[in-house]
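Saturday, quiet lab. Running sequence design on the C-alpha cells for the scaffold JK sent over.
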C-alpha cells in the first residue's frame, strides 16, 4: 500500500486503468488516511489528466452520482459491448489452447468495469465448458494418429469399409472427394510434405491423371519426385544446374499451359538434356495445363490437417461443426436417427441408391459428401438425440455423451 501522496495518486490511476471504481470512504479506510486526503488525490489526478491530454488522450475521471464513486473514461478503452464481442470471437476461432485463451481473457477482464466482470466471467464459463482445443504448434502437423487417417481408418475404429474405402479422410477439406480419396490410396502419404504435393495434384490441370499418377503407379518416380506445384519446377531445374532465369521462365510457361500448346522455346529442350533432366520429367512438363502455387497448397493442407486433428481426437466436436456448417444442405429428417445401427443402415441405402442411379442429379451427387459423413458418424458408434421439449429448439448440434443433440422437430424416427 502506498505511503506517500505521489505513490497513492499513481496507484489510484493504475486501479482506474484496471476498471476499478474509486469510493472515497472505502479508499480512506484502505490507505488509513482521511476522506479529504483521498479527495485531494482524486482532484490532483483529474487535473493531471486534463493537463496532459497529449500523453493520456481523451481520458477523464468522472463522478457517478448514482453509484457515488469515480470512474475513468477513455476513448481508447473498448466498450463493454466491443469487449464481449472480442471475447466471443477469440473463443469461436478455436485458435488457442484452453490455457492460452484463459490467460488472454483474464487480461481483457481488466478493461471491464467491476459491474460487467461477472457477466464476462459467466460468458467465458459457458463457452469454455465445451471448448475443444486443438494443437496449433509445429507438432500438430506431425501428429502420427492424425497423419494415419490419410492412409487408414483404423484409428477411427473401423477398417476398409465397403462404402468409405480404406482411408479415414471423409469430411476432411482438400481430401474429402472420392477423387482425392482414391489419390490417397494410390500415393499412401507418409508425411505432411506429401499431403501438400497431393493438394497440388488435385488443384492442377492434367497434373495427376494421365501424368503423375502413371509415373507413381509404374514406379518410375515417387510422388515427391513428380511435378505437383509451380515451385517444384524452378527449384528442381536450379538443383540440376540450369540457369536461374531459364528455370523461372520454363516454370512460368509450364504453369500457364504454354508448353503443352506451343512446345518448348528455342534452346530450352537442349538445356534440359545437357543437364540430364530425365526424359519422363520433360514429358511430364509437356502435359500440364495449369499448376497450383505451393504456398496456397501449404495453407489449405495446414487448415485441413488441423481439422483432421479434431476428427481423430475430439470427433463429436468435428461432426457437430461440420453438420452445423452444412445446415442449408443437410437434410436432418433423412440423416438423424436415435439408433446408430438404424442410421447406419439408412445411410448405406441412400448412398447405394444414388450410386446406382445413372440419372442422379448434381444435387443428389453433391449430397453424397454429407451422407458419407453421416454414415461414418454412425459407423463410429455415435447417434443423435432429441432435445427435451422444455429446451431451446435450436437446430444447431450440441455435444452429449456419445452423440449429438438436435431439436425434436428435425429428427427422424
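Result came back. Writing it out in full:
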Amino acid at each position: 500500500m502506498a505511503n506517500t501522496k505521489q505513490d497513492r495518486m499513481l496507484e489510484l490511476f493504475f486501479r482506474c486503468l484496471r476498471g476499478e471504481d474509486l469510493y472515497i470512504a472505502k479508499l480512506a479506510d484502505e490507505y488509513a488516511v482521511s476522506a479529504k486526503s483521498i479527495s485531494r488525490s482524486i482532484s490532483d489526478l483529474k487535473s493531471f489528466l486534463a493537463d496532459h491530454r497529449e500523453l493520456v488522450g481523451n481520458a477523464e475521471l468522472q463522478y457517478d452520482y448514482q453509484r457515488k464513486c469515480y470512474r475513468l473514461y477513455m476513448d481508447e478503452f473498448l466498450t463493454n459491448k466491443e469487449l464481449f464481442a472480442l471475447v466471443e470471437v477469440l473463443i469461436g476461432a478455436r485458435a488457442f489452447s484452453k490455457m492460452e485463451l484463459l490467460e488472454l481473457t483474464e487480461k481483457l477482464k481488466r478493461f471491464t468495469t467491476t459491474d460487467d466482470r461477472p457477466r464476462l466471467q459467466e460468458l467465458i464459463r459457458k463457452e469454455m465448458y465445451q471448448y475443444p482445443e486443438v494443437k496449433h504448434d509445429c507438432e500438430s502437423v506431425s501428429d502420427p494418429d492424425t497423419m494415419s487417417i490419410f492412409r487408414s481408418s483404423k484409428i477411427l475404429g473401423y477398417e476398409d469399409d465397403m462404402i468409405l474405402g480404406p482411408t479415414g479422410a471423409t469430411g476432411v477439406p482438400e481430401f474429402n472427394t472420392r477423387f482425392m480419396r482414391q489419390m490417397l490410396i494410390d500415393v499412401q502419404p507418409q508425411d505432411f510434405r506429401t499431403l501438400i504435393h497431393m493438394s497440388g495434384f488435385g488443384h492442377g490441370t492434367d497434373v495427376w491423371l494421365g501424368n503423375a499418377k502413371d509415373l507413381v503407379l509404374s514406379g518410375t518416380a515417387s510422388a515427391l519426385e513428380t511435378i505437383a506445384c509451380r515451385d517444384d519446377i524452378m527449384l528442381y531445374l536450379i538443383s540440376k544446374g540450369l540457369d536461374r532465369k531459364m528455370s523461372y521462365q520454363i516454370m512460368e510457361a509450364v504453369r500457364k499451359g504454354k508448353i503443352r500448346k506451343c512446345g518448348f522455346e528455342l534452346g530450352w529442350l537442349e538445356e534440359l538434356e545437357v543437364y540430364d533432366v530425365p526424359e519422363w520429367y520433360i514429358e511430364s512438363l509437356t502435359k500440364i495445363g495449369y499448376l497450383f502455387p505451393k504456398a496456397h497448397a501449404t495453407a489449405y493442407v495446414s487448415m485441413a490437417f488441423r481439422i483432421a486433428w479434431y476428427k481423430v481426437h475430439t470427433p463429436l466436436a468435428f461432426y457437430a461443426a461440420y453438420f452445423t456448417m452444412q445446415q442449408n444442405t443437410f437434410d436432418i429428417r433423412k440423416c438423424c436417427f436415435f439408433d446408430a445401427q438404424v442410421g447406419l443402415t439408412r445411410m448405406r441405402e441412400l448412398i447405394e441408391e444414388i450410386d446406382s442411379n445413372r440419372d442422379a442429379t448434381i444435387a443428389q451427387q453433391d449430397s453424397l459428401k454429407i451422407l458419407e459423413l453421416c454414415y461414418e458418424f454412425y459407423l463410429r458408434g455415435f447417434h443423435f438425440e432429441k432435445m427435451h421439449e422444455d429446451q431451446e429448439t435450436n437446430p444447431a448440434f450440441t455435444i452429449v455423451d456419445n452423440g449429438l443433440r438436435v431439436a425434436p422437430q428435425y429428427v427422424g424416427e
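Notes for JK: DSSP finds 22 helices and five strands in the chain. Confidence is low (pLDDT under 50) at residues 390-395, 409-413. Ask whether to fix the surface positions before the next round.
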